[in-house]
Input
Amino acid sequence: MNTELTIRICGEAGQGMQTVGETLCSLYQQAGLNIFANQDYMSRVRGGNNFFQLRIAGEPLYTPRAKADILVALDAASIGLHAPALNEGGIIILDKKKTGITQENKSFCDVPLSDIAIKTGGKEIFLNAVACGAVSALSAMEFESLAKVLRKVFSGKPEEIINKNLDAAKAGYDFINSSPRKNTFSLKKGSHAGAMVMNGNQAIALGAIRAGCKFYTAYPMTPSTSIMDTIAHYAEQFHIIVEQAEDEVAAINMALGASFAGVRAMTGTSGGGFALMVEGVSLAGMTETPVVVALSQRPGPATGFPTRTEQADLNFLLHAGHGEFARAVFSPGTAEEAFYLTVKAFNLAERYQIPVFIMTDQHLADSSRDIDAFDTGNARVKRFIISKEESKKISGYKRYALTDSGVSPRALPSWIEDVIYVDSDEHTEEGHITEDADVRVSMVEKRLYKKYAGLKTEIEKPVSHNTEGAKAILIGFGSTYGAIKETAEKLGTDCIHLPQIWPFPTEELTALLAKAKKTISVENNAGAQLAGLIRRETGIKTDASILKFDGRPFDADYLIDRVRKEL
Amino acid sequence: MANPQDFNSTDPIAWCPGCGDFGILNAVKKALAAWGKAPKDIVLVSGIGQAAKLPHYIKGNCFNGLHGRALPAASAIKIANRNLTVLVTTGDGDCYGEGGNHFLHNIRRNTDITVIVHNNQIYGLTKGQASPTTDPGHATKIQSKGVILNAFQPLEAAIALGAGFVARGFSADSSHLAGLITEGMKHKGFSLIDVLQPCVTFNKVNTYDWYTKRIYKLDEKYDPVNKTAALEKAAEWPDKIPIGIIYRSETKDYGEKSGLDSMEPLVEQPIDDIDINPILKDFS
Output
């Protein structure tokens, strides 16, 4: 009995690793096991080498492992590339005939994937189903469970195609079952698997739908695009307009236009596209127009690694936009946080009439876990506009009326009898252009000091595991959550995850770090940007930073190794 | 019919005396009066430049955003609330230069907005540099030996891109211009009204006199539905310059094609408790 299992499916882009991976995700999750799946792919549509990795266990998983127990190599190159990532006792499923491999190795498990596919389905395309069958048999799963999942995966396809996939899968399954490799990796069942399998971007999309986003606009950019894909998939059902913009400049300006007209609006992008949006971020600050922006990071500078992961845009995002104005930045570490914080982002943006950011990265965007169904009772829309009913009573309206909170009651055009003036120039309370020095001071104080005073009262608290007498505290934000959590558990250290990075949780973090023996920031960047931010905001200098900037995410093994060296 | 004065704003005007923008302002007010909607149901959207100040001088909702970015904001305002009448007041630099990409794609997008371009063939707010529509050879402080770039041809470009309403007006003929704006507002889809407008301070070439000598009004003999003829008419420059409706054709606008027209305006959709539970099943 194994306590956990990691499967890596590798091959050229276009060979269907994702289909195999997602099918297996469903299989194990339906069987009551916990999963964590991540993807490593190149910026190309065909060729190269990509992999889909799936970790399975009987307890909740938040991060990948460095090595795999089962490698499914769909091409010859994958064997050389991924054999070093095979655990002791691991198995490589390969098709020697198809890939032209002649050498022997005790880890090789030769399955004639292509021949079986052609024999059962008539086409090589069915070899992905053969591979699913083989992996199922290796891990002692019931075939009927796989058949059920395959029927769902291929639902909507003609009956003939479904049957061919089932036949191919069964043949792969039987091939292993009649070999000594049968049941090599039987898994210990867990107590609770989540009802859903979801990645970070899907969770953001569902959060946006729940929050009442009616207008999503973006220019496609990896790794943010699947937010738009997901919302577009449900757009008709929920009366949402998804508009593909001509560029990111248009995207943020469209989002602001829609928001001005009273609709909850959102855009999403990655670093390069966000660079184009920056003037629009400043416009949101100046015109006090709510907007939610998902910044799904990938490594830069410039085009960087288009399909890989990094957390190097923290400083960029915190400072994006000329001039001074309030903003909030969430940095979810899980799909659950991504969902709830997206709903909160919309509420906060509307309450304070500011841009609110959901900062993620490719690792969170593309990694799936089994999670519990969302509790929508904890994800409620809170509105901060003058309702249509109240609008009838308004007269002498001033869009930028000065108030103690810095927030002016926001009316919508056509709902009130008065007209509304909004301007990117410095403006009076009425919204008209001014050069008056006193008005300027009042407006800056409104947009910066007063709004921050309010925002600071509702900062998302740091997530701390608060281990008594821990040797060290690992501190991270965003997608490193899983790696720091598991490392802390294995090494008996503490960890603190920051789901909100701005306004910075200064008081909470200062208190949490008060008795720390050693503090280590864990970041997917080269500049220790989080450590710098902590020092700036709390005066605390972290003792060390573990930095990874190779475009790949942290995994539990890697981080455990790095932290050991620091202790 | 309402009165143009109903759209007067109290904001003091910051244009140079004699600026062609005054004629455009009057024409917009006349057109709004003829349109018959209350100021609260009108939105004027602008970017940066002298033209961009116009919404402040009108009693109507105003979104004065970024340089070159009026069109995306305007399209989205119309998408968010199709009951609003959306006009854009922009300039040759704002719309054809800084916002050129949005000009291309918002014609393609074809939201029901009316775009009035104050085309003075020069940069006014930045004090006299060439604009995309400055004629070649025109010398400025920067282009001291005369502009060497070809002039952008907004009307031809718009017709080629499939705009369903393309017109040219002259700021000194405010009644004629008001008529064009009214027709543009009636057209369901993107309407372009390029307005020749003398810059009395920085354009010493294209003066009132220069335009008056060349401009003529298209009469009923001209048929604006013929695209080939329209392209030819749009290209007439500079010896004779036609004003009037250069091209018009019925189009299906964004609201119709996106399905927006057959649902409650987005802004009116209830969002208090959207039930996502049915779609959570797609992830199980």
Observations:
- Chain A has four domains: 4-177, 197-378, 388-457, 463-566.
- Chain A touches chain B through 65 residues (CB under 8 Å).
- Residues 159-177 of chain A form the longest helix (19 residues).
